[in-house]
Amino acid sequence: MLGTCRCVAVLAALALGITPVAAQTPKGTLVFASGGDADTLDPHFILERPDVRVSMHIHENLVNFDQNGELKPELAESWSVSDDRLTWTFNLRKGVTFHDGTPFNAEAVKQSFERILDPATASPRRSIASVISAVKVIDEYTVALITDKPFAPLPSQVSMFNLAIVGPAAKTPGADYARKPVGTGPFKFAAWQVGEKITLVRNEAYWGPKPAIERIEFRVVPEDSARVLQLMSGEADVIANVPPAMLPQLKSSSAVKVIQETSFRTVLLGVNNKIKPFDDLRVRQALAHAIDTSSLVKGVLRGIPKHGGGIEAPDIPGARKDLPPYAHDTAKARRLLAEAGYPNGFSTTLMTPTGRFMNDRQLAEAIQAQAREVGIDIKIEAPEWATYNTLLNKREVPLFLSTKGNPTGDLDLTMHLVAHSAGQMNFYNWKNPKADQLIETQRGTTDREQRYALLSEIQQSFYDEVPAIVLFYDAQLYAARSNVTGVRVQPNETVTFTHVRKN
Amino acid sequence: MAVHADPSASELPVSPLLDVSRLVVEIDTLQGPVRPVDGVDLRIEAGEIFGVVGESGCGKSLTALSILGLLPRPQGRIRSGSIRFEDQDLARLDERDLRRIRGNRIAMIFQEPMTSLNPVLGIGDQVAEALVIHRGLSRRDALAQAIHLLERVGIADARHRAHDFPHRLSGGMRQRVMIAMAMACRPKLLIADEPTTALDVTIQAQVLDLMDDLKAEDGVAVLLITHNFGIVAERAARVAVMYGGVVVEEASTEQLFEQPRHPYTHGLLAAVPQLGRRRDGMRPHPLSEIPGMVPNLARPAPGCAFADRCALRVEACLRERPPLAAVAPGHRVRCHVTGVSAQ
Amino acid sequence: MGTLLVRRLAALVPVILGVSVAVFLMLHAVPGDPAQIIAGQEASVEDVAQVRHSFGLDQPLAVQYARFLSRAVVGDFGTSFRTKRPVIDEIGDRYGYTLLLGAAAIAFAVAVGILVGVVAAVFKHSWVDNVCLLVSLVGVSVPNFFLGLLLMLGFSVWLQLFPLTGADTAWHVVLPAVTLGLPSAAVIARIMRSSLIEILGNDYIRTARAKGLPEWLVVGRHALRNALMPVVTVVGLQMGYLLGGAVIVETVFAWPGLGRLTVQAIAARDFPVVQAAVLVLAATFVLVNLLTDLVYSILDPRVTLS
User: Fold this and answer.
1) Which of C44, C150, C256 has the CB atom closest to A195's CB atom?
2) pLDDT number for residue A371
3) What's chain B's average pLDDT?
4) What confidence score (pLDDT) does residue C239 get?
5) Chain C, nearest residue to B168 by Cα
6) How close, in Å, is residue A76 to chain C by CA atoms?
7) Which CATH class is domain A58-171?
């Protein structure tokens, strides 16, 4: 309701032709407006997207993804794994320095990894690094990461933003690294006006091609409509999280352009496999057949995201592209319910967050209406985010809307979190010993095709046993002034401005 | 002695300080416009104390307010008549010209000393204000003079008290401040609307004595409005009795008390238990002893306003309004019966 | 007066103490485990336990509160769960902005409210009065965020007079302050109007007129100050409203104020920040009320601080 009002004001303005003479930002400066301020710029503590966006311009990883989702060298020029598959050797780039002038070398890499692994650091993301049992300096520019068990996805694991290489400055006690990060990246930290903006300036000593722009301002503009106004008025060059309702208008304006990208994030209707009657596969199948995902995408989501049936977004390397959504078939759903002993349906509860992903609340209501068609009476609960998370973690809610992203672009990360019976995000209470075993096996399988085949099997079981009903794969909506080129919105939900040019 | 239909020409040849003539005041009410003042005639000589007596609602206060152009706005207005004061008709002056007269040549003090002073301003400042406006004095000079004035009205330690706020003062003191304020610009006419009604008896006398003194010293004429015959008897040289928006009798104080003509005046005097120049007789008395009610303003009768309550009523009283006619030098009565029969 | 002031300030202590206990208990009663929230959905059990321990949340409640209180007494409010910065810095960065916005908003509300109220009262029942009443009705009814967006559209996007969002320059405060202050201005205008009309009916106003004062002096010198008394009360109450409304306005205009920080902190269960922010807001509110009383005693000599 509030959102509608907000949109109305902006739409009215756009309709009235109040398209202003833009107040241009300085030529060398890129102003990016998003909804939230960063909490920390220390990669070892980063948990939220606003932090990642800034940090990844300052810090770099040994390995990173290119635009096609393929691993490419970054601070490491090449890497290899030992025959016992336990030692990963990285040959480091030479002539790289941190922003404070200290040289980047094997010792710096060791210190960085040991910092996140040290329990005294109290990193909330220590587990990301915990497969690494030791870091060994071979020589000035060669470093080895050692694991206890074979871990095939290690190169993609070290591309995770939490495993970016922090400068030796992070070690200095009281350095307040979270506020004064020192990386090797194309931009240097310059200033942080808390709650307002973070400014980065170009790293003139950058080892790679120098960015065309001299400064980036990450501005905090929490209100969706205000962000759109900023873009329209030219006070911002790029904005994140465009409200879907404003897409047509923005698309019709010649001053701005919409940047729409797919993402590795799956939005799903989680089912608690332990709670009756959802412990019965037929009931889960019935629910899947009751829900018409294509009409959800068209009706509630304006046709923006893609939909499909696989738990992993099809763009992720190794993800199944051939799993369609369960067919919308209410007759079949009713039959399955009857077979399971619920010819007259039943009542249950669906928990949804509000405003955390695209039209989440409306989505829950549409699902409620579709389920009613087959006699499933859904009550919606919409607690605020922190409560939602706590309830999710207790795993006592029968139905819930939730999402899963994939920051590394490697299926291991999410499969382990979501599908493993001990997975932290297995909110479905799905226990499949075979899947657990497959997950462990693929970790030790360095042959890519062989590994993907194992992962494919897990996805198939997840699809067949429907511990969750996949609704759609999220879309990322950015918009930019039309003179801005080179904004790279990545499917792992990061965005880089290193290649931006302003004409 | 003959009846003088137009007594002003023959009996008072010198032009008076204030000459209110056939003043009609109209007030809008929910029932439509009414005329609480419906043809009042008053004349006040320079330096005299002139009393106006009547029950509440007789129009005496509105008459006083209309002299200064202070009728409630926007619902009140002077409908007709004139208010001549020093060669000007106040009824025809615009607001700006009236402001030059208010507090300057005509000043007014009110019934309620407790509420007539601004609670948030120092009394010295309130007295000084008129001097700044009318005399163009600086604030500092005006305040010095205000202190002087306060001393003159009997405020002890005026220099310090000038900075006091009204709530620190007793009722009598406040009325003294009001008087100081009114006298600031040495007005020619002071309108005192029930100046002592809210005060207790001993204070009443002090305040009235003060007014007497000022009259003697400054030669200011006082229009003393009251419902208390005792005060009038003691202080006023001449008296007008008002009823139903008109003056029903006007005479010197002696004449009125010794030979009251109008039946209403009779009634009023009869209602005062002990008539005469007695100090303790100044207590306000309700004039409820006269049978009947104050006339309904919304439906005025064509004849004499008092006719309903009058024991001497004749047929003409209901039909025709009697004129204010002289029955003796300086004594005028508005009555078909007693106004004509006098010799 | 001095001692009275000290006594009034001393009364702050139990208020703050009470608020701190209440906030502490409420935070711990509300569902939502800070460690889980901070660590995120994908955090391992060990990660969450690590975070919980680092926050001291594995201690008994009484121990946690005692530790909070003993540190708070010496001005140490701990570190933010989210940013790991000292809470004092977190609040310090934002508090100035909130005060600036609040002060600007209340200044605007008082100036406009009094002006409109006086004009409406002086011209009561005329078309001027009706226009003022209509405007103030709109002012009270329009939701803050909507008003904010309208002002942005009109003054930033269209007329390009003021910047859209942020807090870089003095110009940045104008639109948020107007947005935040307008509903209060409307309330003040209505109170001002009715109060002034009532005051203008007083005997001492008649006295002032009888003195020959021009009408502007009668209103300005004699009526206004008296008529301001109820306005001061309302302004005091509006300050509380402003503290609440600031959250929305701060969000719309991306103003880096305490309101937004508090809401974020509540959402993230950042206990130390919430605790300190609520205490600061409560103290501000109490001080503002004291200030109101002070203004009252200055305006009206009959009132003393007690």
Assistant:
1) C256
2) 95
3) 83
4) 83
5) C302
6) 27
7) alpha beta
The domain of B125 spans 114-186
Residue C57 lies in a domain: no
Mean pLDDT over residues B103-119, rounded? 87
Task: Choose the closest CB to C41 out of A42, A123, A425.
Answer: A425
Render pLDDT for A245-269 as a digit per residue (tens, 0 to 9): 888 888 888 899 999 998 999 999 9
Establish if B191 belongs to a structural domain. no
Each residue's pLDDT tens digit, B24-57: 999 988 888 888 888 898 989 888 999 999 888 8
A2-41+191-261+476-502: CATH topology: D-Maltodextrin-Binding Protein; domain 2 (3.40.190)
**Which residues of chain B are within 8 Å of residue C204 when distances are taken between CB atoms?**
115-119
| Confidence at C142, pLDDT banded by 50, 70, 90 | confident
C45 found inside a domain: no
**Contact call for A40 and C82, based on CB within 8 A:** yes
State the pLDDT at residue B138: 92
- Which residues pair with residue A201 across a beta bridge? A188, A215
Q: Would you state the pLDDT for residue A157? A: 92
Say yes or no to pLDDT of C187 above 60.
yes
What's the mean per-residue pLDDT of chain A?
90
Residues of C in contact with B195 (CB under 8 A): none
Amino acid in position B259: Q
- Does the pLDDT value for residue C159 go beyond 50? yes
Task: Give the chains touching A; criterion: ≥3 Cβ pairs < 8 Å.
Answer: C
CATH architecture of structural domain A262-474: Roll (3.10)
Asked if residues A131 and A151 have their Cβ atoms less than 8 Å apart, the reply is yes
Q: Which candidate, A255, A13, A249, A483, places its Cα nearest to that of C156? A: A13
From chain C, pick out residues whose CB is under 8 angstroms from the CB of A420: none
**Residue pair A342/A283 in contact by the 8 Å Cβ criterion:** yes
Q: Find the range with the poorest average confidence among B188-197, B298-307, C158-167.
A: B298-307
Number of domains in chain B: 1
Size of interface B-C (CB pairs under 8 A): 72
- The residue-averaged pLDDT of B80-102 equals 90
Average pLDDT over residues B77-82: 90
Kindly state whether B125 is in contact with chain C, defined as any CB-CB distance less than 8 angstroms. no
Q: Which residues of B119-151 are buried (b: 16+ CB within 10 A; e: fewer)?
A: bbbbbbbbbbbbbbbbeebeeeebbbbbbebbb
Of residues A79 and B72, the one with the higher pLDDT is A79
Q: Which residues of B touch C302 (CB under 8 A)?
A: 119, 165, 167
For A135, A151, B222, C153, the CA distances from A138, given in Å and listed in that order, are: 10, 20, 115, 61
What is the residue type of A276? K
Residue B40: which of B305, B252, B256 has the closest Cα? B305
Report the residue of chain C nearest A4, measured CA to CA. Answer: C146
Q: Which residues of C touch B110 (CB under 8 A)?
A: 203, 206-207, 210
Q: Which domain holds residue C177?
A: 94-299
Residue B294 within any structural domain of the chain:
no
Touch test A–B: 3 Cβ pairs or more under 8 Å: no
Q: What is the CATH number of the domain that holds C150?
A: 1.10.3720.10
- Could you give the number of structural domains in chain C? 1
Give CA separation, A419 vs A156, A284, A353, in Å: 19, 16, 22
| Boundaries of every domain in chain A | 2-41+191-261+476-502, 58-171, 262-474
